[in-house]
Amino acid sequence: MSDEILxxxxxxxxLKVADKTVYTMAQKGEIPAFKVRGQWRLRRVDIDxxxxxxxxxxxRQGDGDA
Length: 66
Fold this sequence. Notes:
The protein is α+β, with helices and mostly antiparallel strands and 66 residues long.
């Protein structure tokens, strides 16, 4: 289903990070998200595109391990 809507917890599981990490990223606009009555939601297609962009984007100096 292309219009699948995910919760913060579902995205955290998908990305294998803490739910607080996804929540903070959504608040800062670092990941595509929107609110429904105060709760963050994320479209699966947007998350898939975001993951693709993260894996194909050139690394900037200072990113990653030193």
